Amino acid sequence: MAISTLEKKGIPKENIFAVPLDNRKEERKIFDTLHRSDGTSLIDIGMGIATAFSVIGASIGFKLAWGPIYWGLISAFAGFIVGFAIRLVMELFIKKKKRVLKGKHAEIILIVECDLSQAESVENILWSHFALGVAKLK
C-alpha cells in the first residue's frame, strides 16, 4: 500500500526498490547459549515462586524439626523447580501454538530515491503506513 501511495505522489517505479527479508528457517531454541540469546528468560517465574515458597517454608520451618533455614532452602528449591516447569511448558506448548497461529511475516526493506523536496512527504507516507524505521541519506 505504501508503494502504491508513493507512486500516486509522483515517484516513478524505477526509483522504488523493495527487498523482502527471508524468514528464519530453523525453529527458535529454548535454552540460550553464551553466543546467542532470544531475549526470553526461563527463570523469571521460577525466582518469584522460589521467593514466595521460601518465605512460607521458613515460616513453617519454625515448627518443624530441621528449622527455618533448611526448610526455607528446601521450599525455595521446590518453588524454583515449579516455576521453571511452568515457564518451560508455556514456552514449549502455549507460545509455540501462538507462533504457528500468528504466522511468520517477513519484513521488507524499501529504498526510495527522490528529490529533497519530496523527502518529507515520502517519510510521512512511510510513517503513516506503519514503517518500523525511516532513514534519509543525502
Straight-line N-to-C gap: 25 Å
Q: Rg from C-alpha positions?
A: 26 Å
Helix/strand-derived category reads: mainly alpha
Number of helices: 4
Helix content: 40-55%
Total E-strand runs: 2
Mean pLDDT: 84
Q: Number of domains in the coordinates?
A: 2
Task: Describe the 3D structure.
Helix content is 53%, strand content 7%. The protein has four helices and two strands; from the N terminus they run αβααβα. Helix 2 runs antiparallel to helix 3 (68-102). It has 138 residues and is mainly α. The chain is rod-shaped. Strands 1-2 form a two-stranded antiparallel sheet. The chain has two domains: 1-21 and 106-138, no CATH class; 41-104. The model has no long low-confidence stretch (mean pLDDT 84). It has helices at 2-8, 44-61, 68-102, 116-128, and strands at residues 16-20, 108-112. The chain crosses the membrane at residues 42-62, 68-89. Keywords: Membrane, Transmembrane, Transmembrane helix.
Layout: helices, strands, pairs:
Layout: H1 2-8, E1 16-20, H2 44-61, H3 68-102, E2 108-112, H4 116-128
Helix pairs in contact: 2-3
Give a short overview:
Keywords: Membrane, Transmembrane, Transmembrane helix. This protein is mainly α.
Can you give keywords for this protein?
mainly alpha; rod-shaped; 7% strand; 138 residues; 53% helix; 4 helices
